[in-house]
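cron nightly-structures :: item 1 of 1
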Amino acid sequence: KAILDVSADISAYNTFGWINETIDRFERTDPIITPRFIPCCSNELMNELKEIVHTYDIPIQSHLSENPSEVELVKQLMPESKFYGDGYARFDLFGESAKTIMAHCIYSTDEEAELMRKNGVYVAHCPSSNMNLRSGIAPIRKYLEMGIHVGLGSDVAAGESESIFEEIKQAIAVLKAAGLSAT
């Protein structure tokens, strides 16, 4: 079976159905909207996702500025956007009225980081994934000094484990490799 839906409408319909089936089913688990990243989503799908996020008041998580070629691809796909995060913001999926968690944020510009801070976007730092893919080292200290909320994520697609404890170890190793202190 294909994992791609034929259209944005079908994807949104399926997502609405899934949320309706699961939203109150679990005591400690809530749905979250997860577009893979902007290059995988049409404008129509992003508009549909915005409607879902705001209808159910559920958060969104995705990737942001993980590697230079991805950042460049988003510029080509959305030339009207000032930077990668602005592509999400154009669909009201970048903080403010939608709780937003963005993984990686390695190559976020100062302007993008400032919008993250202003809009209350959370950063999910995924050191194992970033090291395995050789994406780079996220400027976490800078984000913390700016007042951006930062947490750890496992991004198991490219990471090594689902264990957040392993990510803590990796985060410390990344800090050491970058010549930074964990304090």
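cron nightly-structures :: done
The first helix runs from residue 8 to 22.
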